[in-house]
Amino acid sequence: MTLAGRDHLSEQIPPQVIAILSAELPSLAEDIIGEIRRSVPEYARAAGTAKRPAIRVSVEQAMAAFVDQISGTSDTHERRDELCRALGRSEAYEGRSLDALQAAYRVGVQIAWRRVAQVGRRRRLSSAVMTRLADALFAYIDELASLSVQGYLEARSQSADEIAGHHRRLLRLVLRRPGVPGTALERPAAEAGWTVPDEATMIALPVGTRCDRAALDADVLADLGDAEPHLLVPGAFDEARREMLLRALPERRSVVGLTVPLAEANDSLRWARQALALVEAGVLEDAGPTLCERHLLALWLLSDGALLDQVARRRLAPFTRMSRTQRLRVTETLGAWLEAQGNAVETARRLRVHPQTVRYRMRQISETFDEQLNDPDSRFVLDAVLRAHRLRERRPSLR
């Protein structure tokens, strides 16, 4: 529709009709979204995922822009246009035709016109106004569909390397410090056919890892050329994502960071890389993939090796006068005693010895660590240091 056509249309639609339609938008958007998910299988499967540009945002933007257009209050709808193009690009990137998207448009306009007709009868709108609304609505849907076709054709014209480049640049923008505002991601995300998620999970990969990019979900961002390769998974890391990762990584080794708000993705990647170093050192199990969520205490205790050395030097000073055998026995006994909160019977169960043996050992240990064992704060620090010490003892390279 040309600008002149829009101006002419706004003169033909009375302001009170615009107000009536505006009041219908929230519930109409819900009806359209629900019917699309019921009628179009591809969108039913995408419900609750970030694998497509969000249906809800697209529908709400489209309906609001329609009312603006027929009221003549807005000449441009850049965000709406980009969302429509992104819908088309998303279909192309995932290797599908436009059939599902075109079906969604058809469902949307049918539900919208049905509502307009109901409102027209209820409000006794004239047949002339109803005719103009019908013409405007169906022309508008054609406009949206055309924008999606543009996005689809743009994406189809790009090579796999170009798409990967878009994703890589977008990922680097997401990880930039300080965090980039969400609005600054909208345009590059639209160009990459990617929906900006509220949360993300970072995955750290070993240097030189082999990754089958085609096996990754279309919404996963990858930077495999980085000195420390990594992936960004929108949303949480669930079983479906785990299976995807196993397909994509022949060597299986990877570490999954914590799911965090997108602005904190750099933290998730930092923790994943720390855990990957511990996996490669043999401290953490190579679970392929290894989840940071299951090793938070170890990550915390070993997060600053230099500081840990300083704390250990002060708290475990008596160890310097012991042989390795004595040190291991004291570490094992005292650690179990602290974890059991001083209960000799529970400590004995953990160590598989007699409680009297525990009491005998603790009397000897108390002579060395007496002050620390009597103070609650000191016991907490000692417990933490001993846990870290035991983790380090698994591999001398971490000492």
TrEMBL record:
InterPro entries: CdaR-like_regulators (IPR051448), PucR-like_N (IPR058663), PucR_C-HTH_dom (IPR025736), PucR_C-HTH_sf (IPR042070). This is Helix-turn-helix domain-containing protein. PANTHER family: CARBOHYDRATE DIACID REGULATOR, DNA-BINDING TRANSCRIPTIONAL ACTIVATOR ADER. Residues 332-388 form the PucR C-terminal helix-turn-helix domain. Residues 11-175 form the PucR-like N-terminal domain.
